[in-house]
Amino acid sequence: MCTRCESSTSALSPASPWQPRRAFLLAAAGAATAALGAPALAQVNVGNASVARNLVPADKIEAAGVQQYGQLLAQARAKNALAGDNNAQLQRLRAIAQRLIPFATPWNTRAREWKWEVNLIGSKQINAFCMPGGKIAFFTGILEQLKLSDDEVAMVMGHEMAHALREHARARMAKSAGTGAALSIGAQLLGLGQVGDLAARAGTQLITLKFSRSDETEADLVGLELAARAGFDPKASVSLWNKMATASKNQGGLSFLSTHPSGTDRIAKLEANIPKVESLYRNAKRS
């Protein structure tokens, strides 16, 4: 899903709620951006987000995501592959997103200001993603080939939203830039240069960015909790990945799984965390 734009009108809106020198730069960056930890009432345990992300300005990486998302939609529209507002599958996706979005802000206070958007692109790809800044896209292939239930769609969407909320792209950009670029960004944050050069150049990389296994595990668990709080059955996380494994076997491997490693270990982690969020799911279903 994560092979990786600000429009004037959003399709969705939020429903409501190291060496000494480098250490110095990290401290300065950390002071510029508040620590991103798990919400106090979180049921899953994912710890604090990577401090490395503070070396890349959040607003710059979000702006890059918004720009690339807009370019992707324009390309799809030119090929008559962008679903219209009346498309039943798109309406379904947006309805699911409306249930998930209210639970996003506790995981990242910046999400309160994001102009959330969901779109559907006609493609056989088994894929979906959420850009920094809350820009979500699904490909028809993931819905049609896997025949996803609403609960399974919510698990996919929650997982992708979690990547954006936990700022995995921002952290990966900082880590892949190397020490020299990191020091340069740190200097910029200290007022010694133009801020955001790296993030401004990073837009073309967001759509193909690969996350680490720890990022994927974190997204699985945060997405699981988001979906459970929104009233989606957490057991669907297991059925989703079983479907993904079957599809990969039948098709000789999926490009999707190159960035979303599958296997028994992943399912085992989800199964171990389902009991932690089942009460959230039951409460949501009662309300």
Automatic annotation (TrEMBL):
CC annotations in GO: membrane
CDD domains, alphabetized: M48C_Oma1_like
Keywords: Hydrolase, Metal-binding, Metalloprotease, Protease, Signal, Zinc
Domain Peptidase M48: 91-272
Cofactor(s) needed by this chain: Zn(2+)
Domain of life: Bacteria
Signal peptide segment: 1-42
Keyword Magnesium in record: no
GO MF annotation, one: metal ion binding
The keyword Zinc is annotated on this UniProt entry: yes
Membrane-crossing residue ranges in chain numbering: none
BP terms from Gene Ontology: proteolysis involved in protein catabolic process
InterPro entries: Mito/Outer_Membr_Metalloprot, Peptidase_M48, TAT_signal
Cofactor annotation comment: Binds 1 zinc ion per subunit.
Family named by the database record: Belongs to the peptidase M48 family.
Official protein name in the record: Peptidase M48
